[in-house]
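Incident log, structure service

09:12 report received: a user says their structure output differs between two submissions of the same chain.
09:20 pulled the input from the user's history:
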Amino acid sequence: MEEQVEEDWMKKEMLCYSLKVSTFYLEMLMYYKDKNELPPIYELKKMIDQKGELLESKFRLTYGTIFSLLLAKDINVRTPF
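09:34 re-ran on a clean worker, output below:
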């Protein structure tokens, strides 16, 4: 039972990694119009495998801001659905 859970987890991880690589490759193809301009494969692998920078947002949204936007007549902040 435990082996099956670990195998399922590994399959899920591999699928996520494959999806991540495929998405990254598609984005690279959109950015580099000519395939000859793509960076070498080891550079692409390094970009995919490295851990990104930790981002810390300075954006703050308070209840007062939300209420002000809701009351503003010139701005429509309601979702379409």
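09:41 both user submissions now match this output. Likely a transient worker issue. Closing.
09:42 reviewer note: The mean pLDDT is 78. The chain has three helices and no strands.
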